[in-house]
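Session log. Operator J.P. requested a structure for one protein chain; no other inputs attached. Running the standard single-chain path with token output.
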Amino acid sequence: MGFYVLEARLERTSIPLGLLFSRQGSYGEVGTAMFRGAMLAVSEIAGDRAFDFDFAVRGFEPKGVNESYMAGARELLMREGLSHVVGCYTSSSRKEVLPVFEKHDALLWYPSHYEGFETSENIVYTGAAPNQHVVPLTRYLLAQGGRNAFMVGSNYIWAWENNRIMRDILGRNGGLVLGERYVPLGDTDLDEIIDLILRCRPDFIFNTLIGESAYSFFRRFRDRCARAGLNQPTDLPIVSCSLAEPELALIGPACDGHLSSSVYFSSIRTAANARFLAAWKAMYPAAGEPSADAEASYIAVHVLARAIRIAQSTEVPAVLAALKDVRFQAPQGPVSISAENRHSFLWPRIGRSRSDGTFDIIHESSNVVEPDPYLVWEPLTFAPPARDGLKVVS
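Structure written below.
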């Protein structure tokens, strides 16, 4: 764990920007992708004459340890005096640092899909809210005839809340949860849970495991299904709201055929994404494909830069006031920030993973979706399914 500095160019005004990502630990691959997305945006701001400032990065490495996020937040906000930090992946790390941001009236730019049911004057959320990931996924599964689920997750708020939301939607629509199990972060002792899933034979498995726990589950479950004479992707499909491109290589040969609900996949065909991919591969030629988490970090830095330019200030109240006027042509599509809850208008999609480490997009929203973190107006009862069984097809 430690503090590091990446200086801006001297010929322009230097604005300090904190980064708080774990590039080591059980979800280090995700944290590395987020760090790279943020740094790509920092480099683009530096090369854009529309801005008269650069970001000078001040970073802290928590190594995936919650208590170290608190130490990092204190380092960046108290010792360095920063007002803006892009960081955190897990909801537990976000909740760990929030009191420090509130105390110092600083702003956390949180670039991760999350479980919702939160708003804060000290957080801007550039990742997906539940009506932009778990609700579209459940709607899609029900439409395909998927009614009965088994849930397996890491033992913290991300899994608890997403499973609660899916359980509620399934119940409203005649579905059932056949089982629900949790393991500690990083735990890979999953054989007993796999045995139970095979006995239950659900229509699908809703995976809210993260990091090494998830990668092990994908591999071992595929192997157990094969030994039982089952075609896992079609007979017992695994669906997620967090599976992303950099993780597929860590899963290995069992990485294909899984559904993931997200607002960004590297296979999106937009001009903005083509530019993003070219810049990503030029800056990180050995890093593989970018992910939704990388894009959300990229969005966070670009939106912050535009808000500072509009406000002509880095003061938190001025930046928050300027957000209503920020529009950013993100790789996923045009995004903006809700003045009501400081969450992002985003573009939900569902992808099916491929063996080459990318996703086929099998469903996508035709319109940008307003964030509804408390699921106040999102309809949760849908038309009856058109099929008797879940078919994972495009």
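Operator note: The longest strand covers residues 53-61.
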